[in-house]
Amino acid sequence: MSGKIRLNTDWLCDCGGCHVAIVDLHEKILNVLESIEILHCPVMTDVKDYPEAEIGILTGSIRTEHDKHAAEEMRKKCKTIIAFGTCAVYGGLHGAGLAHSREEIMDHVFKKSPTTTTDTIPTVEVTELAKTVTPIDEVIDVDLYLPGCPPHAHFIFESLKTLIENREPRVTQDSVCARCNRQMIKGDAKELKNSLDGVPDEKFCFLSQGYMCLGSATLDRCLAPCPNHGVACTGCAGPTMQILTEPYRDIRTEVSDRMARLTAIDADTIKTYMEKTAKTQYAYAMATKMIGNKPTFLIKKWIADVEAG
Amino acid sequence: MGKVLNIQPVSRIEGHARISVHLNDAGNVDDAYMSLMSLRGFEKFIEGRPAEEVPRIVNRICGICPWMHHTSSNKAVDGCFDVTPTPTGHKLRELLQVMAHINDKILHFFFLAAPDFVLGPDADYSVRNVIGVVKAAPELATQVVKMRQLGQMMIDRFAGKAIHPIAAVVGGFSKPLPEAERQAMLKDTQTLLDFGLFTLDFAKNNVFNKYLDVIGELGVIKTGFLGTVDRADGSFRIYDGKQRLMKPDGTYVDFEGDDYLDYLGEHVEPWGYGKMPYAKSWDEGFSLDLENPKGIYRANTLARINVCDQMATPKAQEALEEFRSAFGRPAQATLLYHYARLIELIYACERTLELLNWEGITDTDVRAKVEPKAGRGVGIVEAPRGTLIHDYTTDENGCIEKANLIVGTTHNIGPMNMSVKQAASALIKDGNYDQGILNKVEMAVRAYDP
Questions:
Q1: Is the domain of A180 the same as that of A87?
Q2: In chain B, whose CA is at the least distance from the CA of A50?
Q3: A223 and A181 in one domain?
Q4: pTM over 0.80
Q5: Contact A26 B146 (CB under 8 A)
Q6: Is there a domain that residue A171 lies in?
Q7: B261 to chain A: which residues are within 8 Å by CB?
Q8: B77–chain A nearest CA distance, Å
Q9: Interface test with A, best of B105, B169, B268, B389 (most A CBs within 10 A)
Q10: How far apart are CA B181 and CA B157, in angstroms?
Q11: Which of A22, B290, B305, B367 is the most interior residue, by most CB within 10 Å?
């Protein structure tokens, strides 16, 4: 047992998919187990407390006091904390809690749903929902970030190897386009299409054909499975480094400029469409301050505009 | 004053839960709860989004069974837009969903449940896990890892993403199945079927026979059952069919998914974020009382095996006959969920082969034409953890106006609470308990695979 690197993992508010992704290292997991000893890992072991460990993997975001407490315990006991998966890094899909208050959500789920026959909101035995959903680095210090929904096995294995071998990770900061087989050409589309309009040509870039695709604004932690299987990217690994680091660049400015260059559609038309569908375009990363604090990001206004008609 | 035992987190399950057992002064169980600790609120935040995007968003409700959310959501949007998928698109969706069931059963049985049986419920907690299984039975463990890889890679290769899939679309499927890929899948699925049959045999000899006394006692309660069966002949189905709601005495009613509001209600207690569905149509209200439960039914493997008239594939039917002759219909023992899960594993492999051999499966007409519009659609499939219901209403732009979801696990929250209380009351006496006993209380939950 001695000499192995000790690993704790925990899941906060998430779907569990990141932990399945770790299991899905398949034969490589047996490989990893030669160098790593798994301690606290609720999906796999019955270790209920948090032992000391070299590596701590946290998936999911902070939704309740319980999540916050678990993150703090992990920080105390683990030397290196990895924010694993898009929820941990950016808040994830349920970061859309930002667009709706927790009261609205509770009310909807426990009172307004057509099947619910009681008029009770749970208050005992449960920990209260935080006001908004937050990425874990708003609660604890994070050493390494691995976004992805879930991250592809290639990146998971590389990051674990990096820690086992005590070296720099060999990963690039390319966008999803880098792994996409489609060719970017200047197309003649005059109107924006939604994913229901016909079947896109599999040889060419979605943007060139007038279909919305977030691949060029999204960090590659997936090896581009969606555009290579006929479906446009929806940005589940979160934005590229350029978008995160420059205050006046964001997903819609980036994609609308590029798409306008590749089609006959006006950039403003594209930008307006993306504002109208902001909950979809910013689905995965709206809860991070790196997006939320941008002067160009006005999601509450955009949603209000849509609701006002 | 009595005391409260908290088991948190409940481990080797697929969600976030806590068990609390309330003991009285004498150290006997007064009450016991299993509460879900998390709430995200997808029903609310998919509002306003273009409905055709939703099947890729709601996957994230569950990373263990994302395919089921993907297909039921697509079926619901088909309903909203009044579109019928092409026959091939329909079958490709079913194919991928059934394949995903194969991997799920392998994951649950070997990674989550097996440590209790291979190493024993009282084995030390530090080794009672899949890594302990790897050490105790390395050849079996390597085989399990390989089989799971085979299953996941089959999905990955053809559909791009196994976790959080994208390949099913409103009106059908995003791409046709190439012949070469079909051939490869046939070969791999045959291997998986052989492994499934081996697993069922292994479990019969090493688990179900060995632990018959535990099976007959642990977490046993008496409830009704809900599942999906073939519209024509009542056979076991997981992708499409009619709903069957069975009473504890074995009598049942069948209904179409669109009418689910007439049959099911959801009850909320102040002590957990999970809502508890119950059979509203039985007109007896809701109660978790162990002696006299009201409105309580269960979903997931045991329920499906109980409600169906027969399995639609030969080897699974053989297994069902053996199961029924031993345990009757409906079987109530909670640990039989594991047995039922393995019968489903056989079905899922056989059904995959059937679909791959269907003459139209490689047809290129995979996607019907779709126009966004106002409407309502109810999409129901069987997720590994139970009947999964997505109910959407769209506005004239085809955006979600409102949504109601009942996910598989929630059907069993009430019953899991009953099983926990039953197990805790039977096992904890006069203040005596140890970690083996507390693990057995968890096993009563684990069987449901929440």
A1: no
A2: B9
A3: yes
A4: yes
A5: yes
A6: no
A7: 114-115
A8: 12
A9: B268
A10: 9
A11: B305
Q: In the numeric block, which tokens belong to residue B137?
A: 């039975």
Counting beta carbons within 10 angstroms of the beta carbon of residue A106, is it exposed (0 to 12), middle (13 to 18) or buried (19 or more)?
A: middle
pLDDT digit string (tens) for chain B, length 450 residues = 689 999 999 999 988 899 999 999 999 999 999 988 778 889 988 998 999 999 999 999 999 999 999 999 999 999 999 999 999 999 999 999 999 999 999 999 998 998 998 888 889 988 999 888 888 888 998 999 999 999 999 999 999 999 999 999 999 999 999 999 999 999 999 999 999 999 999 999 988 888 888 888 899 999 999 999 999 999 999 999 999 999 999 999 999 999 999 999 999 999 888 899 999 999 999 999 999 999 999 999 999 999 999 999 999 999 999 999 999 999 999 999 999 999 999 999 999 999 999 999 999 999 999 999 999 999 999 999 999 999 999 999 999 999 999 999 999 999 999 999 999 999 999 999 999 999 999 999 999 988
C-alpha span between A75 and A155 (Å, rounded) = 23
Q: Quick one: A161 and A13 in the same domain?
A: yes
**Domain range spanning residue A255?**
176-308
Q: Are residues A161 and A186 in the same domain?
A: no
Domain count, chain A: 2
> Complex ipTM, two decimals?
0.94
The dihedral over CA atoms of B111, B117, B119, B123, expressed in degrees to the nearest 10, equals 110
Q: Identify the domain boundary among A109, A139, A165.
A: A165
With an 8 Å Cβ cutoff, are A26 and B148 in contact? Answer: yes
CA distance A67 to A88: 11
**How far apart are the C-alpha atoms of B6 and B262, rounded to whole Å?**
37
Q: Do A116 and B370 touch (CB under 8 A)?
A: no
- Nearest CB to A20: which of B63, B273, B391? B63
Verify whether the Cβ–Cβ distance B62 to A20 is below 8 Å: no
Distance from the B265 Cα atom to the nearest Cα atom in chain A, whole angstroms:
5
**CATH number (domain holding residue A61):** 3.40.50.700
**A146 located within any domain:** yes
The residue of chain B with its CA nearest to that of A224 is B160
Domain termination residue (choose one: A165, A184, A218)? A165
